[in-house]
Design brief:
Chain B: Belongs to the RNase PH family. The complex is a heteropentamer. Chain A has four helices and 15 strands. By secondary structure, chain A is of the alpha+beta class. In chain C, strands 1, 2, 3, 5, 7 and 10 form a six-stranded mixed β-sheet that branches. In chain E, helix 2 packs parallel to helix 3 and helix 3 runs parallel beside helix 6. In chain E, the strands form four sheets. In chain E, strands 1, 2, 3, 4, 5 and 6 form a six-stranded mixed β-sheet that branches. Chain E has one domain: Ribosomal Protein S5, domain 2 (2-Layer Sandwich). By secondary structure, chain E is of the alpha+beta class. The longest helix of chain E has 40 residues. The chains are: A alpha+beta, B alpha+beta, C alpha+beta, D alpha+beta, E alpha+beta.
């Protein structure tokens, strides 16, 4: 069941079942009330562990949460870690030199300032600096994480990035794939990295993805088609 | 200022120059060897400026530290006595927007000319004191910095020479003084070496679009002459130093 | 969010002397005091600090005696030293004269400008009133730019004074006299007090209008407690002590013209007159009684039952006051004239009321960030503020 | 009332808000990294900047900023983001009142606009806050809508009231700022009138957010 | 100091590579100025300019004051351009000494005030005693590049749109007639300067730029925010419809061939013409809209508005 909630609305919670609070929910440290703190669609689900409540809302500012897949820019390097920016002006997060596949004291990663990385948020305590890792800590493989070489970044809203990553019904990538070959890394921090063989294809993908934000599914195809046509005609001029 | 004749029918300007003549250009290099790493004193007409270059040195502030190249900082001090009328402002002129603009323009001009990437994590601090001003100051500042930077031994691609050109009716007048500057529209150029490439171009008053090209052409030629004058001065200075060194 | 279910850490039986507790946990210290029925300053909940007032002591009578240009030098026209608890608030009011160049309907002489009056007629009310320009300075023992608190207090004083409609623009109008030299060489100043004299001065003075502008400099020493209240009350007393000097124009200056020239153009400009202040004569600033009012602030705070000392060791402590019994229902208490760091930082809900002695309000500002503001509490603070206002009015009359 | 959220590109949340002749844009960015002196160890710090439609900011704007802060601080879920900053900027486009005499219309518009922008930005809020302006005129009539500069000038008293909205109803009084000549009865009457005003505003508020989300 | 926007190496490389292949991210050609959207507010002299995502608001205010002593026949005219964090967190509140802030405000100052676009002698009321002070308040709302160009258009539109209240001078007294009672008077605009900004990119290395003969530098008009962040040089040309250069500013940056710069100036002229015509047209439409009401309201002493 999905209903609109607005900050301050009362939420009926079954008091007998343990509650797991997701994004957009807040347990006030003083009053101990459970409140929605964002305006959006309320989602509740029950599982063996208990009931999960979260608010689905769109925004532009990313705050790290454990397990999120993100695209970041290296903005500094220290003795044992990199500083990574996940969003402009936000507090940077750290990426330890040990959080790479086959890392050891001697085997240092070779990223430089300005490089893009695909990573996973591994700790995100609100009082501490968040950390990301470029390794799948369960088996030590790279799991697709690491340096994103070349390509281009598209900045989208967080909700759009989530649909792109998690919603299998979302037709955008499928439609894009009909026009060109591409590599893509989607960060839930609203950064999408895309790489194709040709500049013009990347440009077309860039414009398509940017333009498809806030449009309905059935419009995607036309938008994409339009942009791919445009890039080919520009070259001929 | 009533009817002063800016440009006589005989083709003479107020100070007796022809339209395409530069002002007196005299310079000494390495004037403040104890106070700086490179310095110059330049008189271009009645403009008199001292330029001091300090650096590359370690920056005092962390914010000035750049991992990939040197930070360039330029401070212009227009002294209060540099003009006929003393400026009325009581406070310092440091934060006046006009001065800030000049400083920014100079930094951006020399950033592309000095090979700052050779001196990472350092700062190069240039200080200019204008002792007397008489029109076309920005051009003079550029020349002063070029000379001082060469004296300081900072690697650069080429000379940048600056000059102002006025347009009197249809006649361009090279290297204007302050009386001329007040009487007509002027263009200031900063030219890269012997090329036709402009590092800096500023027009602050109205000027017919179709005359601009002509003015630029005269300006570039004038700037090339200034480059030669600077080159000569530097070579003479270097000669002297070499002979001094070998005499010992 | 995992730690939600965890229990609150129990209070360890560590004891601190009261003064240390007040520093490390002002909130708890305050709550403990309140639970015992009094405040850290040992005042009762609804008790104000004592106020003493001293007006006109700083007024510079000597300066009035010297004829000075009002435009340049500022003399003190009225003053007040207010002491509330340990806080000193020194207010002095200075003035200047400005020329009214744009006309408002009131300014137009009826006979000649009747037609113009019609078109510029505005029925607006508030525009007929004016305010003083206050500058509040809270001394903190160091120099520096104005703090936000100073600026906000100044602005609040300005707004409240304006909206109190205590000062009409008309009351600040300067009606200049003329200083003439008689045939026998004696100098006399004629003021437009009588009809006959009105005729003379009207003929002599130029058709210009001047007004006084009042500035108030309010200095606060040893700041603690509601700054606005103390500044407002002090300003009120100071304003009542203001004496405006009468002003006149020298006969010789009444018809001065001069030429200006620039870029080959000429124009004749009337020279600015020197309006001079009379050293002998002055009059009290007319204030509208309806605006005289006094400010007081109340803080609301929820009592924290956990901090209640009487419950911690209720076994021995039985002599509880009234509050203790009522506590189950009334959890929010009202504190008058909050002061001290603990009260100022912990109390988030405040009610500030500026009340006339007749019980009407001039300004009311409620900030409800903390405890809920109920109608009862609001009414209680209103009643207190009325009492406070009449107390202070009495004080000003005794003075 | 006219509202348009998401009006600006480079900030996290924004709102163009106009009510009668008062028009204001607000923008919210956060949580972002604060400057060291702004940082609060346990809470989200807020920075509010208000710029007048004409001229430079003065004490009047600082006073308005302070009033907005007293309203916004209690509704933010500020413990959720310790050592972070929420940057709020307000730009008045049209004041709708004589700026030297009044600030009441601007204050109410700024608060409502800021709350919309906060909702748009996704900065966590515990409640909403809704502001309204009420005038009692010289005939003791309560005027609660379509307040113009002329009405303000002829006021007997003028009030700005902000209510906290809890569970779709006005609950706590967050701010009441009154000037002029009024008594206890007036205060109670104004509170009553404002509550119904706020109820009304809250309804359109909700409708707007609903329509925005369903797109 | 406010932080800068971070931009990754891949991104900057890609944008430059795309430019080399004749592409811009937003599907414009190199010489294409963004469409300008002009919206007038309810009040006179209230204008919102949109160029793509860039938004600039300008509002004119006026008051009566005393002229400067040394200029008794002239009114006062100020342009205030203070940036705020609204346009993006990279702008610091109330900071007007930052490099970019200074350059923007100086260029607008030169383009509009110094060039005499507003007839300040017409603002004189009583010589040496009273004059109008006109203030153009520029508010940067949203930044996607081209602040100088947009603000210049905004200031000029607002000045053209504004009308100051009519006044009657009676000796020393001045009576200001409210706008509702007497038709207000437009300001005297002497010419309309339009700024066009060019951005330069260097596809080769620095040596090629300084010593080479190829002149391969890329020139684009009206850069977007990303392009502004990456550009190596910038030139702002201000022209008016009378083929006059009002102001040119290339404050350093990539050295550019003089002929290329001349070419830029000529390109700027055609843009200037188009925008000037658009401004005049929209001002006229708006005036007509307002006239419908004022025709009913205006009394017999309504003035001719030129």
């Amino acid at each position: 069941m999905s209903t609109l909630v607005i900050p301050g609305d009362e939420i009926t919670i079954n008091p007998d079942v343990p509650v797991i609070l997701g994004p957009g929910m807040y347990n006030d440290p003083v009053t101990r009330d459970i409140l929605p703190v964002n305006a959006g669609i309320l989602n509740t689900s029950n599982s063996k562990k208990g009931q999960t409540i979260y608010v689905e809302y769109d925004s532009k500012r990313y705050t790290p949460a454990v397990g999120d897949l993100v695209v970041g820019i290296i903005t500094g390097s220290f003795a044992d870690s990199y500083r990574v920016s996940l969003a402009n002006f936000s507090t940077p997060v750290s990426l330890s030199y040990m959080a790479f596949p086959n890392a050891s004291k001697k085997n240092r990663p070779t990223l430089v300032i300005g490089d893009l990385v695909y990573a996973r948020v591994c700790t995100a305590e609100k009082e501490l600096e968040a950390e990301v890792e470029c390794v799948d800590s369960t088996n030590g493989s790279d799991a697709g994480f690491g340096l994103l070489d070349g390509g281009m970044i598209i900045e989208v809203t967080l909700g759009f990035a989530r649909s792109l990553l998690f919603n299998n019904e979302f037709p955008l990538l499928r439609d894009l794939a009909q026009h060109c070959k591409f590599e893509i890394a989607i960060g839930v921090n609203g950064k999408i990295w895309i790489k194709t063989d040709e500049v013009k294809d990347t440009i077309a993908c860039y414009r398509s993805i940017s333009d498809c934000q806030g449009k309905s599914y059935d419009q995607f195809r036309d938008i994409i088609k339009k942009h791919f046509q445009e890039v080919t005609t520009t070259v001929e001029e | 200022m009533s009817r002063l004749e800016v440009y006589s029918p005989e083709g003479l300007r107020m100070d007796g120059r022809r339209w395409n003549e530069l002002r007196r250009f005299e310079t000494s290099i390495n004037t403040h060897s104890h106070a700086s790493d490179g310095s110059s004193y330049l008189e271009q007409g009645n403009n008199k400026i001292i330029t001091l270059v300090k650096g590359p040195t370690e920056p005092t502030l962390r914010s000035q530290l750049d991992q990939t190249k040197a930070t360039l900082q330029i401070t212009v001090n227009l002294t209060k006595f540099s003009k006929f009328e003393r400026s009325k402002t009581t406070g310092s002129t440091k934060n006046e927007r006009r001065i800030l603009e000049i400083q920014t323009a100079l930094v951006r001009t020399f950033e592309k000319n000095l090979m700052l990437n050779l001196y990472p994590r350092t700062i190069i601090d240039i200080e200019i004191h204008v002792l007397q001003q008489d029109g076309g100051v920005l051009g003079t500042l550029i020349n002063g910095i070029t000379l001082a930077c060469i004296d300081a031994g900072i690697a650069m691609y080429d000379y940048i020479s600056g000059v102002s050109i006025g347009l009197y009716d249809t006649t361009p007048l090279l290297d204007v003084n302050s009386l001329e500057e007040a009487a007509m529209s002027c263009v200031t150029l900063g030219v890269m070496g012997k090329s036709e490439k402009l590092s800096l171009l500023q027009v602050e008053d109205k000027l017919p679009l179709d005359r601009l090209e002509n003015v630029l052409a005269i300006g570039i030629a004038g700037a090339h002459r200034i480059r030669d004058l600077m080159d000569e001065a530097l070579r003479n200075h270097a000669q002297k130093r070499i002979s001094n060194a070998s005499n010992k | 969010m995992a730690d939600v279910e965890e229990n609150v850490v129990e209070v360890h039986p560590v004891s601190f002397p009261p003064e240390i507790l007040a520093r490390i946990s002002p909130e708890l210290s305050l709550q403990r005091h309140l639970s015992l029925g009094f405040r850290s300053s040992s005042r009762g909940f609804e008790e104000f600090r004592d106020v003493t007032i001293n007006t006109e002591n700083l007024t510079d009578d000597k300066a009035l005696k010297d004829t000075i240009k009002t435009n340049n030098e500022k003399q003190i026209l009225g003053s007040c030293v207010l002491k509330q608890g340990d806080v000193f608030v020194i207010t002095h009011i200075t003035g200047g004269v400005i020329e009214d160049s744009t006309l408002s309907p009131d300014d137009i002489d009826e006979e000649e400008d009747a037609e113009l009056l019609e078109i510029t007629e505005e029925n607006s009310d508030i525009t007929k009133y004016t305010s003083v320009y206050p500058v509040v300075e809270v001394n903190r023992g160091r120099m520096g730019a104005c703090t936000d608190e100073e600026m906000i207090t100044s602005q609040r004083l300005y707004d409240t004074l304006l909206h109190s409609k205590i000062l009409t623009k008309k009351s600040l109008r300067v009606d200049p006299g003329v200083r003439i030299t008689n045939e026998d060489g004696s100098v006399e100043i004629i003021y437009p007090d009588t009809e006959a004299k009105k005729e003379i001065t009207k003929a002599m003075t130029p058709k210009k209008k001047w007004s006084y502008v009042l500035y108030a400099k309010i200095e606060v020493f040893g700041r603690t407690g509601p700054v606005y209240d103390m500044c407002w009350n002090s300003l009120m007393f100071a304003l009542q002590s203001v004496k405006l000097p009468r002003a006149f124009i020298d006969e010789r200056a009444t018809d001065l013209k001069m030429t200006v020239r620039a870029r080959g153009r000429n124009a004749i400009v009337m020279e600015t007159y020197n309006l001079l202040c009379d050293p002998e004569e002055s009059y009290r600033l007319p204030l509208r009684d309806i605006g005289k009012s006094f400010a007081s602030t109340y803080g609301l705070i929820d009592l924290d039952p956990e901090a209640d000392i009487s419950k911690l060791d209720s076994a021995e402590d039985e002599d509880e006051s009234m509050e203790g019994e009522e506590e189950e229902e009334v959890k929010t208490v009202l504190l008058a004239d909050i002061d001290g760091e603990a009260e100022e930082t912990c109390i988030k809900s405040t009610i500030s009321i500026t009340t006339c002695p007749n019980g009407r309000f001039r300004q009311l500002s409620i900030v409800g960030g903390g405890s809920k503001i109920t109608r009862e509490l609001l009414q209680k603070s209103i009643a207190l503020s009325k009492q406070r206002s009449s107390d202070l009015t009495l004080k000003s009359q005794q003075d | 009332m006219n509202v348009q959220t998401g009006y600006l590109q480079n900030v996290d949340g924004s709102c163009l808000y106009s009510l009668n002749s008062t028009k204001v844009i607000s923008s919210v960015t956060g949580p972002i990294e604060p400057k060291p002196r702004q940082e609060l160890p346990t809470q989200l710090a807020i920075e509010i900047n208000l710029r007048p439609a004409t001229g430079v900011p003065t004490t009047r704007e600082i006073t308005l900023q302070d009033k907005i802060r007293t309203v916004i601080t209690p509704i933010l879920a500020s413990y959720k983001f310790p050592r972070q900053l929420c940057q709020i900027t307000l730009q008045l486009l049209q004041s709708g009142e004589t700026e030297s005499l009044f600030n009441q219309l601007e204050l109410a518009a700024c608060i409502n606009s800021t709350v919309f922008a906060l909702v748009d930005s996704g900065v966590p809020l515990k409640n909403l806050a809704i502001a309204t302006t009420i005038v009692i005129d010289s005939n003791n009539n309560i005027i609660h809508e379509n307040i113009t500069d002329d009405i303000l000038k002829n006021n007997k008293s003028v009030h700005v009231i902000v209510y906290q909205i809890e569970n779709n109803k006005p609950s706590n009084l967050l701010l009441m700022d009154s000037h002029g000549d009024f008594d206890e009865q007036d205060v109670l009457k104004v509170l009553e009138a404002s509550e119904s005003n706020v109820r009304q505003l809250n309804k359109s508020f909700r409708e707007y957010i609903q329509s925005k989300l369903s797109n | 100091m406010a932080k800068d926007i971070e931009i990754s190496t891949s991104e900057s490389k890609f944008i430059l590579e795309a430019l080399k292949q004749n592409y811009r991210l937003d599907n414009r050609t190199f010489d294409q100025f963004r469409d300008v959207k002009i919206q007038f507010g309810e009040e006179l002299g209230d204008v919102l300019i949109e160029m793509g995502k860039t938004k600039v608001h300008c509002k004119i205010s006026s008051s009566i004051t005393e002229p400067y002593e040394d200029r008794p026949f002239e009114g006062l005219f100020f342009i205030s351009t203070e940036s705020s964090a609204m346009a993006g967190p990279q702008f610091e509140n109330g900071n007007n000494t930052g490099e970019d802030e200074v350059l923007i405000s100086r260029i607008i100052e030169k383009a509009v005030r110094r060039s005499g676009a507003l007839d300040i002698e017409g603002l004189c009321i009583v010589a040496g005693r009273k004059c109008w002070a006109i203030r153009a308040n520029v508010h940067f709302l949203d930044c996607d590049g081209g602040f100088v160009d947009a603000s210049c258009i905004a200031v000029m539109c607002a000045l053209l749109h504004y009308k100051k209240p009519d006044i009657t001078v009676r000796g020393e007294k001045i009576i200001v007639h409210p706008v509702e009672e007497r038709e207000p008077v437009p300001l005297g605009i002497l010419h309309i300067p339009i700024c066009v900004t060019f951005s330069f990119f260097n596809p080769m290395d620095m040596e090629e730029n300084v010593k080479g003969e190829s002149n391969s530098e890329i020139v684009i008009i009206d850069a977007s925010l990303k392009e502004e962040l990456l550009r190596e040089g910038v030139l702002t040309v201000t022209l008016n419809k009378n083929r006059e250069v009002v102001q040119v500013s290339k404050a350093g940056g990539l050295p550019m061939d003089a002929l290329t710069l001349m070419e830029c100036c000529h390109k700027a002229y055609s843009i200037t013409e188009t925008i000037t015509n658009q401004i005049l047209k929209e001002i006229k439409i708006d005036n007509e809209k307002r006239d419908k009401y004022s025709a009913i309201l205006s009394s017999e002493n309504a003035r001719e508005t030129s």
